[in-house]
Amino acid sequence: MMTQAASQDQSVIMRTEGVGKTFGRFVALKDITAEFRHGAITSIIGPNGAGKSTYFNLLSGAFAPSTGKVLFEGRDVTGLAQHKFAHLGIAKSFQITNVFPLLTTHENIRVSLQALVSRFDIFRPRTRLHELDDEAEALLERVGLAGHRHRLAGSLAHGEQRALEVGMALASHPRLLLLDEPTAGMSPEETRTMMDLIVRLAQERTVILVEHKMKLVMGISDRLLVLHHGELLAEGTPDDIRRNDTVKRVYLGQREH
Amino acid sequence: MATDLAFEANRQPSPMLEWATRHRVALASLFLLVFPLVMPFKALAVMILIYGLYALGFNLLFGYLGLLSFGHSALFGAGAYLCGIAIVHFGWPWYLAIGLGLVAGMVVALVIGALAIRTRGIYFAMVTMALSQCVYYLFYQAVDLTGGENGLRGVNLKFVNIFGFQVDFLDPLSRYYIICSFVIAALWVLSRILASPFGAVIEAVRENEARARASGYDVMLVRLLTFVLSGAFCGLAGALLALHLSTVPIETMHYETSGLAVMMCLLGGMGTFFGPFIGAAVFLLLENLVSVWTSHWQLFVGLAFMVCVLFFPRGIWGTVMERMKA
Hints:
The complex is a heterodimer.
Chain A: H1 2-7, E1 12-23, E2 26-37, E3 41-45, H2 52-60, E4 67-72, E5 75-76, H3 82-88, E6 90-93, H4 105-114, H5 130-142, H6 158-170, E7 176-180, H7 188-201, E8 206-211, H8 214-218, E9 223-228, E10 231-236, H9 238-243, H10 245-252
Parallel strand pairs in A: 3-8, 3-9, 6-7, 7-8
Antiparallel strand pairs in A: 1-2, 1-4, 4-5, 9-10
Chain B: H1 15-22, H2 24-38, H3 42-64, H4 72-88, H5 94-116, H6 121-141, H7 143-146, E1 152-153, E2 159-162, E3 165-168, H8 172-195, H9 197-207, H10 209-214, H11 219-245, E4 247-248, H12 255-268, H13 275-293, H14 297-311, H15 315-325
Antiparallel strand pairs in B: 1-4, 2-3
Helix pairs in contact in B: 2-8, 3-8, 3-11, 3-12, 3-13, 4-5, 4-6, 4-11, 5-6, 5-11, 8-9, 8-11, 9-11, 12-13, 12-15, 13-14, 13-15
């Protein structure tokens, strides 16, 4: 894998080559070629129905593209089963909060950590994997949930659940972290906490973010992709995007949320 | 379920309960040792053991993984028939016959599972039921081997040889303890499975499939493996039934037997360790005690079931556990 990656442009962690997605006769996404730089925060933005989530799902392996290819570190991952993405080093959080509601927060993270170590061991006690307990504890602290280890995930506040989800995504030690609207439905304070967390996490890994609220990501993103009607409208630094007339027309012209 | 979360917001377990949970198999074994002595008839105690084990195996899939199967009679029945056939037609020793029954449960589970795991909810229930009916007719038609409509007769086992000791299998109490030792072993294995890393994966898949997949678990494989494990317990229960009854009635494989597992699980408490066993005990006790004075025993079982579903949705054992945690 490394040698394959070495032959590619090292600065690119993920690439999509002409990917498109159709649902029946509906074209959700067409022909998107884009690169995501290693170590950067790249945000995918666009108005409602632009195809952001569809694109996110192609990047994270939730479903395969109808056309085109997805490459991760130079390796073709198009159509690879979802569960294999975590093992490659790609983790994601969902747009709609997705935790294990009837498990404790600690167990939520612990079971996510366990995915890399032990999946089909049916006879030894799980308490033997005690290094996972400590690691889970550390991750809980990392995402600001240290005091909630015995609480059931389903009983956490919305913002806490989202933070827990980020912790679960981090459990696979991802080199690439994909976040689908991580601040959806959050209060302003929760949003600020989450944004701070994302910036901190991005110091050690590549982050790709899907966001509806453009203002939110302008400050923290290194690069932006703007989608509109399932097509790539523009790409560049926040300044490039701010200056882009087409983007202004289709996106900034709308009322900000 | 979400409404119950508030009550369980903080679940720091009490040391007593934790200790009891850790030694649950030992505690259950102690109970099972004295159990036949307090029962009105030993044969009923044996039936409770066997159906308890069957419901336990079913609960692994239903309560822990969250898949409602209506085809478990095929696993139970296959275990019973194969154990019986090995003894009646091939003269196998009893312990190998039990082993064959267990494997038969796993094989049937593998086949049904491989075809059904891609569906969910009511579709999964329907597919498993349809497939179990296929297995039913297969055994129904194979008259030479299975006795067809009359069931398989003559699974006679008079003595069992345990480490050189001849034990009278016709004596109700020794029969109980022999079958009990298998059930305790099964309880122990099940407890280990649930406490294992894979046990954590089973619950994670039940709680949130998409999240489990994103975390790196192959959900389909987890489901199939759990189905097969469930088949092992149900197959073993079936094999023990064949030995206990000395016959395998065709009804063992009927879909009503699948419904029985669902009912026992709900009665006792799905997703709890002992719930299905308690459910089986309550069901069989009601059936046996009430049928002594009225032939309409099903009316009373039905009433008990309705009371349970309406007022104790977590089942008998589930409610007890909840009270103890609070």
